[in-house]
Amino acid sequence: MRLDLQPSIPNLPSLLPDETLYSWCGAVHMWNGNTSALQTSRQLFGAPYSGLLHDFPSQLNQLAERTASVLGPSREIALRHTLLGYFLPWVAPDLSEMIISAVTTGSAPHLKMQLGITASRVGGLHPLKGCLECFDEDEQQFGRAYWHVSHQCPSTMVCVRHRTALYVVRHHNTPVHRRGWILPRSGLAKDWSAVEIGNSTQLAILTRLAQFSAHAIQSAPASFTPDRLASTYQLALEAKGALTRGGSLRSPQLDALVEATYDGLHGLRGFTAFQAIAGPASNAAASLSRRRPRKGHPFKHLLLITMLFESWEEFQSQYVDAEAATERRSKIEPTEGVPHLPADRDLFLRLMKEQGLSATAAAQLVGITTTTGITWAKAHGLTVSSRPKSLNAKLLKQVRALLVRGIDKQEITKKTGISETSLNRLIVSEPEVAQAWRSARLQKTRDLHRANFLSLLQTHKGVPIRVLRKIPGNGYAWLYRNDRPWLEQALPFVEPRC
After folding, report:
1. pTM of the entire predicted model
2. Dihedral of CA 157/161/164/167: which sign?
3. Do the Cβ atoms of 104 and 228 come closer than 8 Å?
4. pLDDT in tens, 347-358
5. Separation of alpha carbons 413 and 409, rounded Å
6. CB neighbours (10 Å) of residue 229?
């Protein structure tokens, strides 16, 4: 017998912009004063647990039928209000459509295995995350705070809107054992812990990673294919000197590039994908950029893209170039003993050789990115000169001096006008300067955490350490991992690892 929802759930709130379906279900439960979360889920989905799954809800067609489709099409809900929109752009067309069909018409018990999450070493718990400033704005504008889909991306640790670290929810029960909803300002009891970001340089790179993640989640299913992604990465890696002309990775240069980009973030607690790409870095990069690439978790792809490209538009342009080159190569009939070049690459090389154009000018005429042009020029032995106005000897001396002092990369780019790409290349190419910069940064970070923790001890005298550790920005975890001898001297005792 069909359930008549009208008397059972009279109050259905609007599904707000960027709101997770899980958050909306929690609001339904609260608005209607229901006592049983399982009953609310049955009323909405016809199943007791579908509404309690915060990352991948199922039975979406049942939800549409029982709510008279007030939330919109089931497919749109799946792609824009759950984490499926984060994973499916990297999945093959047939598999992505099969997954969408499964979560809309029924359930998908093996979904995380199909998406490759279980084998990725990234982790599949997907803790709830949120921005305190967003919650305040949500309450003022909509009357309730809610979980934002863009904040739930595994690779998102910063709120792009407010450029602040997200807070991560800690709950003693795993999602399958919860009998209620965790909501930002209500619901089940929860503990918060802020993502620990050491300095403005780390904040800047995590913000760019979050921006790229937001672009990815808006992409259509099956937007990116492994082969074309691999070609895209190869072009960018070669341009940065981390790939030989023969297509082999230069591990030392790649490791230095990763270190320069994600300095101090490899041990970020709760985000093991950093360790998966950076220790050693060549393993993840090789698996995603080889001629026969392996499937990879979106987090790993986004870490590579953030490291190799300054903007999402640059990545997309390079991807289109790689796609066009792949299609042209597949159409060219090979002649024995005679190497063939795509037409636009041949034109680009002739413009540089015969007309003496710069790589930038030739690339603009051919209609490719400068990065692609430089890669082609170097691969064919052409000299590509750097712009003297950006990298003259006086400027380089100033940049080196700032690096040795441990100044943030973001501050250096503002003071000198040098681009972030040029700065990263300088760090990669001069190991002694890079080591001096990292040592100075470590000392500054250590001094900052020591001062903050001592101030915390002074303002909270007599408060147990286990309580101090819950105060946002306390720095205890960083000191425990990186400066334990000092921590042991500053405290009468140091608690053991949990």
Report:
1. 0.69
2. negative
3. no
4. 788 888 877 778
5. 6
6. 22
